[in-house]
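hey m, so remember when u said the tokens were messed up on ur end? i reran from scratch. heres the input so u can diff it against urs
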Amino acid sequence: MQAKRMPCDGTIGIFCPSHVADPQRYAAQVAGIERMGFKVKLSENFYKDTWGYAASAQERAEDFNALISDDSVDAILFNGGNGASEILPYIDYESICRSPKRIGSYSDGTAILNAIHAQARLVVYYGTAPYNFVDLRHYDYTQFCAHFVEGYSAEQFEPNSERKTLHGGQCEGVLIGGYTTLFAQMLPNRFMGLEEQDYILFLESHEKYGKVGITAAELAFIEQTPFMNKVRGLIFGHFSNEAPYDLLRCLERLGKRHDIPVIYTDDYGHGTRHGILPLGARARLDADRQQVGFL
């Protein structure tokens, strides 16, 4: 299921599932969104610090559920941090099915995005978040419009960097993934609900959160689950300004072990390019040409 696109002057709802919101930082993010012509609605408990590191899980979930059921809200965005997984039991997934909206996040939002797709079968969007709008670059702007705004369309994952083929081949499958740490943690989660179908896995990590060895260990945890038998291809996003040789060889070995196409790209993740991947959409990966098309 895909939610309808938002109008050019639509309202974006923002809630804060992963940290205590800083008013000054969010003022700049809201201003950036409004410069694009959109309106912004902040959730009721947005600035609360009930649990010290965030509002309570119930308060954060109530905020999300309220934005879903609010007919004046056209899309929902939220940033990363830590702790988003705490709200998964309190999300009203049936309400999402009744009132689907375009929902976008990244990083810690991996948990919420994957749970929503699994429980409501809604296509959600990895790679965009409110903080992107503070210093909105042309690539980020065109990516957001392509996936969220009426009058635009996304037929492929447009390149904005030099992509690397680490293991060649072509495949088709449903896009699934997110931040490597969170995705590995989500695999056994009761809200994940993976189906018996082919998947194209997309992952990303960043050197500021750990060395290559940590990412390699997380990849190994993913590989050693039954889910890996359903993976037909891998896209790995930005890790650092100069992709480490050790990481590229790790991804190459993974591709060879499973005989699946693998590419590396700086076009999404925690870097300066914020490309968007529709989690739950069917796609085709051509690693020989470094192309990803949406079907």
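this time it looks ok to me. The helical segments are 23-35, 57-69, 93-98, 110-120, 138-148, 180-186, 212-223, 245-258. if urs says something different then somethings off w ur setup not the seq
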